[in-house]
Amino acid sequence: MLNGKVAVVTGAAQGIGRGIALTLARKGASVAVVDLNLEKAEKTVKDINVLGQRGIAVKADISDHNDVKAMATAVYDELDKVDIVVNNAGIARDTMVLKMTEDQWDAVFGVHLVGAFNCIQAFVKGMISRKSGRIINIISAAGLLGNMGSSNYASAKTALIGLTKANARELAKYKITSNAIGPAAETPILRHVPDAARAAFSNRVPLGYMAPPEEIGDVAAFLASEESKYITGQVIHAEGGMFM
């Protein structure tokens, strides 16, 4: 399905990013695992190697343009090309709007939106030259619902939809697609949410459970494949019917 393809997945040391990285590898792709936590990223790479695929771990702060440029150089040096970019890295700095600091706002936008822009810009030139590529941005069901205390997170994830659609229009002539996935899944961020809030969130899902990361990986693998070549500028809601 993805034999011979090379993917970059940010925030792939754990959670949804790890699930996506492993699924892409299972489908035949080589994967660059990008994360601030190099030790955990290397564990993901070991599991990619067990699947018989090539993987590399690269430490990078994707909110820093120069750090992303260095990361891209490392990826190209090791894997030669990039066919798929999955912008998954995310952080939460939740607090009510009256108490939210400028640093909390900037940090969340820096990772979710600026980070995605940096990674797209770093790799899209190569995609354009080959007239082929897949950009996949991970948004959030929680963000789109506008949960209390998450004005920074919800705003950044909504802005990421705009980036997805603008890139879809700009890059279509090069046969590059740009799509987003809105998951409702078990993630490390949810470990910091009170049990009552987690239960309330899960109760909104008609299918009755939060997806394991690998199920979101299946959606990403489809959007990364040739089977999805006529799909661009879309948000695929993999959230168990929450927005139905």
Q: Explain this structure to me?
A:
It is a single chain. The chain has 244 residues and is an alpha/beta fold. The chain has one domain: NAD(P)-binding Rossmann-like Domain (Rossmann fold, 3-Layer(aba) Sandwich). Helices cover 48% and strands 16% of the residues. The chain has helices at residues 15-26, 38-50, 65-79, 102-130, 141-145, 151-171, 195-203, 213-224; strands spanning 6-10, 30-35, 55-59, 84-87, 133-138, 176-183, 235-238. It starts with 5 loop residues before the first strand and ends in a 6-residue tail after the last strand. The relative contact order is 0.15.
Question: What's the structural blueprint in terms of helices and strands?
Answer:
Layout: E1 6-10, H1 15-26, E2 30-35, H2 38-50, E3 55-59, H3 65-79, E4 84-87, H4 102-130, E5 133-138, H5 141-145, H6 151-171, E6 176-183, H7 195-203, H8 213-224, E7 235-238
Parallel strand pairs: 1-2, 1-4, 2-3, 4-5, 5-6, 6-7
Helix pairs in contact: 1-2, 1-8, 3-4, 4-6
